[in-house]
Design goal:
Elements lengths: L2 H10 L2 H38 L2 E7 L10 H18 L5 E10 L6 E4 L2 E3 L4 H5 L3 E2 L1 E4 L4 H4 L3 E6 L4 H5 L4 E5 L2 E3 L10 E14 L2 E25 L12 E4 H15 L11 E9 L5 H12 L6 E5 L1 H42 L2 H9 L4 H51 L3
Parallel strand pairs: 6-12, 8-11
Antiparallel strand pairs: 1-13, 1-14, 2-6, 2-13, 3-5, 3-10, 4-9, 7-11, 10-11
C-alpha cells in the first residue's frame, strides 16, 4: 500500500479525532487571524483620527478675568501679559503655526467705533449706538489669512505687505451697505469714528455721554462673503466685523489711548488681543506644550488657562489602545493554549495506534517512513483547518471591528469637534 493511501486511510478511519484536529486548527487560525486584523485596523483608525484631529491649543480667559474685582486697568495689563506669553510660546519647537488677533467688539458702555454702514444681521444693540461696528485685526500670526477662510467676491484680501506697512485697508462683508441704501464698492473710503463714553448718574440712572471722539479713514480693498467661511479651529468668528490689518488697528488703538488721556486719568481700553491659538505638530505633543504653558503663565494662572484638543484625542486613543492590547493578549493566550491543546490532541490522535505501528514494523517499514506518514496526516488536517480560518478570521475580525468602531464614531466626532 502506498504512503498516500495509508495517510488517507489513517485520516478517515478516525473521523472524530481528525475532525477535532481540523476544528482546533480552524479555531486557532481564527483567533490569531482576527486578532491580527483587529490590531491592524485599530492602528489604521488611530492614524486616521490623528490626521483628522488637528492639534490645537488656545489660551482662554477664566471666569475670574471677568469678575467684579478685575478693573479695566487690570484687564488691560493681563491682556498685554498674555500677549507677551503668546510670543514666548509660539517659539516652541512643536508649534507649526499660530494665530493672534486684535479685536474691538461692537461699541459698548466705555466706547467703540461707529460708522455709516448697516448690515442685514445687525441687531438692536448695534443700531442703538447708531452704526456701532466691530473691527477684527489680522496680523502676521494669522491662520485666517493662511487658510483662506473666507471667500473674496470682489477686489483682494489683506496681504502680509499690508500688515507690515500698517495700511489703512479693510475687507467688508458683501451684506454691508450705507445707511442711504447704496452698495459698498471696492475703493470706497469709509469714515470710522471712535467714541469714548463717560457714565454719569442722573436721577439714579446711569447715563452714558460722549466725552471725546476720534476720526479715522480706511479704504475698502475687498468685498468678502462671510456666509461662506471655514475659520480654523478655536478662532472666534468675526461675523460682521470689518477685517483690518492688526498693525493698523494697533495704531488706531494707540491714538485713542493718547487722546483719552487728555480728558481723564483713568484709562479705558476696549481693544483686546484675542484668539491666542497654536497649531501643534502632533496630538502627542499637546501635553508637553501644556506643561510649557504652566511654566510660563505665572500669577496669571488665576485668570487664564490653556484649552487643547488632547482630551478628545486621548479619549479615542485610549479606547483604541485598549483594543490593541486586547488583540495582543488574545494572540499570546492563543499561542500558549494552542501548544497545550495541540499536545493533548496529538497524544489522543496517536494513543491507539501502537498496534498499527507494530504491524508496519513487522512488514519491514522503516520508523522514519512511519513517522513521516503520521506527521503528514497532522499537517494535512491542520492545513485544512487553517485554510478555512482565512475566511472565518476575516469574518470575525470585520464583525468585531465594525461593532466596536461604530461605537467609536460618536467619540471620534466629539474628539474632532471638541476643538471647534
Amino acid at each position: 500500500m502506498s504512503v498516500l493511501k495509508r495517510i488517507f486511510n489513517g485520516i478517515i478511519r478516525r473521523p472524530v479525532k481528525s475532525l477535532l484536529l481540523v476544528l482546533f486548527a480552524l479555531a486557532l487560525g481564527t483567533f490569531i487571524g482576527s486578532s491580527y486584523l483587529i490590531s491592524k485596523a485599530t492602528a489604521q483608525v488611530q492614524s486616521n483620527i490623528g490626521s483628522k484631529l488637528d492639534s490645537f491649543a488656545r489660551i482662554e480667559y477664566k471666569d475670574e478675568y471677568y469678575g467684579a474685582d478685575v478693573t479695566d486697568e487690570m484687564a488691560n495689563q493681563i491682556n498685554l501679559e498674555v500677549y507677551n506669553l503668546f510670543h514666548e510660546l509660539k517659539e516652541n519647537e512643536n508649534v507649526i503655526s499660530s494665530n493672534l488677533n486684535l479685536n474691538i467688539d461692537w461699541i459698548n458702555n466705555n466706547g467703540g467705533f461707529v460708522t455709516n454702514l448697516n448690515h442685514k444681521n445687525q441687531g438692536i444693540y448695534e443700531k442703538f449706538y447708531e452704526g456701532g461696528i466691530g473691527l477684527f485685526g489680522i496680523g502676521l500670526d494669522s491662520m485666517i489669512e493662511e487658510e483662506n477662510s473666507y471667500e473674496i467676491v470682489e477686489g483682494r484680501d489683506i496681504t502680509t505687505e499690508d500688515i507690515k506697512n500698517h495700511k489703512p485697508y479693510v475687507v467688508v462683508d458683501k451684506y454691508y451697505e450705507y445707511t442711504n441704501g447704496d452698495k459698498v464698492q471696492v475703493g470706497d473710503k469709509i469714515k470710522l469714528t471712535y467714541r469714548n463714553y463717560i457714565r454719569e448718574q442722573i436721577a439714579n440712572e446711569d447715563v452714558y455721554k460722549i466725552f471725546n471722539t476720534l476720526d479715522f479713514e480706511v479704504e475698502v480693498i475687498g468685498i468678502c462673503d462671510l456666509s461662506i467661511r471655514n475659520f480654523p479651529k478655536f478662532i472666534h468668528d468675526p461675523f460682521t466685523k470689518l477685517i483690518i490689518p492688526m498693525t493698523t488697528l494697533e495704531d488706531m488703538r494707540n491714538q485713542t489711548i493718547v487722546e483719552n488721556k487728555k480728558y481723564h486719568e483713568e484709562e479705558y481700553q476696549d481693544f483686546r488681543y484675542t484668539n491666542f491659538i497654536f497649531k501643534i505638530d502632533n496630538p502627542e505633543n499637546l501635553e508637553v506644550f501644556s506643561q510649557k504653558f504652566k511654566e510660563l503663565v505665572g500669577e496669571n494662572e488665576r485668570y487664564v488657562k490653556l484649552s487643547t484638543s488632547s482630551d478628545g484625542y486621548y479619549e479615542v486613543k485610549g479606547t483604541l489602545d485598549n483594543m490593541k492590547d486586547m488583540s495582543k493578549l488574545i494572540l499570546i493566550v492563543s499561542c500558549i493554549s494552542s501548544f497545550i491543546i495541540a499536545t493533548l490532541i496529538i497524544y489522543l490522535y496517536f494513543k491507539d495506534r501502537n498496534p498499527e505501528v507494530g504491524i508496519l514494523l513487522a512488514m519491514g517499514e522503516k520508523k522514519q517512513k512511519i513517522l513521516t506518514q503520521f506527521i503528514a496526516e497532522i499537517l494535512l488536517l491542520c492545513l485544512l483547518g487553517l485554510s478555512c480560518s482565512i475566511f472565518t478570521s476575516n469574518l470575525v475580525g470585520e464583525k468585531i471591528s465594525s461593532n466596536v468602531f461604530n461605537g467609536l464614531n460618536d467619540t471620534e466626532t466629539n474628539a474632532i469637534s471638541s476643538v471647534d
